[in-house]
Amino acid sequence: MTPITEVEGRRLALSNLDKVLYPASGFTKGEVLHYYATAADVLLPELRDRPVSFLRFPDGPEGQRFFTKNVLPGTPGWVRTAEVPRSEGPARQILVQDLPTLVWAANLVTEFHTPQWRADAPGLADRLVLDLDPGPPATVVEACAAALWLRERLVADGFEVFVKTSGSKGLHVVVPLVPVASARVSAYAKELAVAAERALPALVVHRMTRSLRPGKVFVDFSQNAAAKTTATAYTVRARAEPTVSAPVTWGEVAECRDLGDPGRLVFRVPDMAARLRREGDLFAPLRDPAGAAGLPRGGA
């Protein structure tokens, strides 16, 4: 029998709570839901007002995975949605605005992905994201070195710069912006990636070509395109272990680079409660409009 729970006045049917999603650690679906519910105070502000795309993995990371942006069949009527532009015409996507919606979506076993713009201003980016993806044998250690160079360059351009783990192999460098067309952000982000490759040719590559990437950090600027999304801060990832895309401090990034220990920037669901008590929400200042800056007039 599927258990029914009430979350802020909404009745939810939660299924298969004992199902093991991560066999290597024995981590269950119930534990994933518990994490999302207890991390709601930091996750919901990252999701709120942004159309959500879902990467679903109901049988665990080794099972079938499918990515969806459209409103899911069976979505409760009380879940808020927003119309968003698509190349093929307008469509509706889900907005995760509150705890009941978060728990309902988590019950579907999802990674949460969001664009760099809000539903009330489609295509006007209020964030810039650089996805630093190390190609083996490079690791997050090399990504840290690239991130620190990019931070210095972005600070010189007048930005406040934040960083999180991708929850996979690399890092996401994130900058708050005065809202501006996504196309302009993409162009500036590409200039930054090219500049990083020019300054650090043995470390960085800005092109996606697979043959160029072994041992280097691919600075992926493409996630700034209006149609693209990025794994949301604090989401659980569909990896072998229940890793989290966790905001980190620049001190932690420098320490990982200096010690050469990629394990220092791996955070799993069981690590997060103590980490949040200790560090708080490291992305809270990112969401303060007072910290946003405009794009520079010149090039990167």
UniProtKB/TrEMBL annotation:
Record organism: Streptomyces spectabilis
Superkingdom as given in the UniProt entry: Bacteria
Enzyme Commission number(s) of this protein: 6.5.1.1
Pfam families from the UniProt entry: LigD_Prim-Pol (PF21686)
Alphabetical keyword list: Ligase
Signal peptide start and end residues: none
Enzyme type, top EC level: ligase
UniProt-recorded name of the protein: ATP-dependent DNA ligase
Domain DNA ligase D polymerase: 28-283
GO molecular function, one term: DNA ligase (ATP) activity
